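Most newcomers find our protein records easier to grasp once they have seen one. To make this concrete, we reproduce a full record directly below:

===
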Amino acid sequence: MNVLVTGGAGFIGSHIVDRLIAEGHRVVVVDNISTGKEEQIHPDAVFYRTDLTRPELREVFEKEKPEFVIHQAAQIHVNTSVEDPAFDASVNILGTINLLEACRNVGVRKVVYASSAAVYGNPETLPLDERHPVRPLSGYGVSKYTVEHYLNVYRHLYGISFTALRYANVYGIRQDPRGEGGVISIFVDRVLRGLPMTIHGDGEQTRDYIYVEDVARANLAALEAGDGEILNIGTGRQSSLNEVLRLFREITGQDVEAVYGPERPGDIRHSVFDISKARRVLGWEPKVSLEEGLRKTVEYYREQYRTMDTDR
């Protein structure tokens, strides 16, 4: 396959690129390096440094003529979408329209799209399945959901197939704790620097944490299955912050300190996905347990931090 990956220098995108190349596919990466890192791009990938919103994107498509697109690039910060909703929409909505027009012009067969749990808003029932009401609480959630509609329109008007994958809380190696970092990458950073973990509330709030390699496998599965489908990608397991803290203590052998503070206004108390549809439609199953994923992540960053200390 000839596959173009937007955001292929980023946390999730770079893992997808690695897996595609390992399976023998030709890969083109488009990334503006605003949050991604050029050194994370597989050396066998063709790389273009450009932006979703720029006219040059169509030139890349005309030159490379991809059959498939895996669309990971986005404005990823919820806070940014609240403070500057026009910027969020310009990247996530208008940038994706520019991408879809490029797809249409060269006859792309399918787009696999990175959507988000943020589309759901506050859960009314758990576990969350794809029929749950969609009531996003931020511009980011709105923009992610809006693109799902555009994908459906382009499918009906131009025959471009799609699969939209709504991610739970993705974690793992290459996630920048000071950039797009989720709670686990922030925790890893603080633990390895000998700082206490900060927990807002009592620590019993839960999320569905999924390891990045499992997400990459879901994207590859969606290249050949799930046409026209919207699918939850998680583990189907709730884990509290206190459980994460306990696992960090076991994995590191350190008495990791936690500082508990007041709950943050607007935080969702509990969230977990029903992933039965993804299992059925993609033939996909998460393989990495939270303990194994945390261990891999801690070991990777422990070596990274050791190297940084040596360089100093």
